[in-house]
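Example 9 (inverse folding). The structure is encoded as follows.
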């Protein structure tokens, strides 16, 4: 008898007698149950989010390389700037959503590169700052909707051109007080050339600038990144200098006819963090959050961290919420220079410029601990620098439906960057 006949397989037997058929069916069912259990137990958990590219820039009349992130209006329409358009330097664009999808409108073309994302100010106009243009040291600009709502192109105007002694190279979008005055920071210029915080006050059709504070480049810091209002005071970060040379968190408080600067925290570098990348945001309790582009638990020139500064008995207490790992992408793979975003549950969202499995950046979420412990870090998307985009420098904004939106500066269908959406 041949071996093939001797070692008879009951499951795949050609013997179709009733007792063999029943045994075959039973064994097959047991095998399928085991297989399903194995797949279920060993499969990686689903992230629960869906990533979509809602617009890919073409490098033509729509511009390219969106760098500065997004702003949304009450209807959920998105607004942003990109960095290049033919012979000019970029556009302000709008993405409108309806039943058939997202539709792109170029609202305004620049003669100088837009440096910050645009934000809504008084009267429904968009405001921003350019890193160049004007006298060569940057401008603050606005664009207003056209009188005819059927027109797409908005009307732009330069509100102020910096001259260096009053500031140079504005960073971060403008912020507003209740009277409609404009505030912001400049990376350089001012009395000492180390950056300044400015105020623009409107008088008729003219905006008058005043310098609220000029940084010295010493213990008070160098290169202010951005400013934000909280309870009548201005807060921000400097990217360099300070007591240890690695940047500061500062406060500007109105004092008589001027403003007083207070350094709330001086970054020590190394494991204590350094070189803050973005401005700050606040939660409802008055705690401050920001990110550092370098240092952290991996020491000097590490990939950075997310941190919190809390008011405590008249002083401020610093704590690190999360240290980014170093997966071999280099020292510049940490948080971008865009501010963090917080949702109503206290979760923080942001982007990294060259982190992740493909070293092309990520979108991340940090969830606060319940009852003490560590914050939980979640990758929401790893960019591949392919059709999904790559190297985001964008803030993350939350839409009215809970979806997340942002930009990536390269990749996409045409290689010129994308606007993306993450749905829960």
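The amino acid assigned to each position is listed next.
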């Amino acid at each position: 008898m041949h071996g093939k006949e001797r070692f008879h397989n009951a499951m795949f037997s050609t013997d179709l007698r009733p007792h063999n058929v029943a045994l075959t069916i039973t064994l097959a069912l047991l095998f399928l149950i085991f297989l399903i259990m194995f797949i279920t137990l060993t499969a990686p958990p689903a992230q629960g989010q869906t990533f979509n590219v809602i617009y890919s820039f073409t490098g033509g009349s729509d511009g390219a390389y969106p760098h500065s992130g997004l702003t949304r209006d009450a209807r959920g329409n998105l607004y942003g700037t990109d960095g290049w358009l033919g012979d000019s330097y970029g556009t302000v664009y709008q993405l409108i959503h309806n039943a058939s999808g997202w539709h792109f409108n170029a609202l305004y073309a620049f003669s100088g590169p837009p440096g910050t994302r645009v934000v809504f100010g008084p009267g429904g106009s968009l405001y921003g700052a350019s890193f160049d243009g004007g006298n060569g040291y940057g401008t603050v600009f606005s664009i207003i909707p056209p009188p005819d709502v059927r027109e797409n192109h908005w009307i732009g105007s330069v509100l102020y051109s910096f001259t260096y002694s009053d500031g140079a190279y504005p960073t971060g979008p403008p912020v507003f007080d209740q009277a409609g005055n404009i505030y912001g920071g400049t990376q350089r210029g001012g009395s000492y050339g180390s950056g300044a915080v400015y105020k623009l006050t409107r008088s008729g059709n003219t905006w008058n600038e005043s310098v609220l504070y000029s940084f010295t480049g010493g213990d008070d810091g160098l290169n202010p990144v951005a400013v934000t209002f909280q309870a009548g005071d201005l807060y921000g970060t400097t990217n360099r200098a300070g007591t240890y040379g690695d940047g500061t968190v500062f406060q500007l408080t109105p004092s008589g006819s001027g403003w007083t600067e207070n350094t709330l925290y001086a970054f020590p570098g190394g494991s204590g963090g350094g070189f803050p990348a973005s401005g700050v945001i606040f939660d409802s309790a008055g705690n401050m959050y920001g990110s550092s582009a370098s240092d952290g638990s991996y020491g000097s020139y590490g990939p950075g961290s997310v941190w919190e500064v809390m008011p405590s008995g008249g002083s401020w207490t610093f704590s690190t919420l999360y240290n980014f790992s170093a997966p071999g992408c280099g020292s510049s793979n940490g948080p971008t220079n865009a501010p963090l975003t917080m949702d109503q549950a206290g979760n923080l969202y942001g982007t990294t410029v060259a982190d992740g499995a493909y070293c092309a950046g990520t979108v991340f979420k940090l969830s606060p601990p319940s009852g003490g412990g560590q914050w939980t870090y979640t990758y929401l998307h790893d960019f591949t620098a392919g059709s999904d985009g790559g190297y985001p420098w964008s803030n993350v904004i939350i839409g009215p439906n809970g979806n997340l939106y942002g930009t990536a500066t390269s990749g996409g269908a045409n290689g010129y960057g994308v606007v993306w959406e993450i749905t829960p």
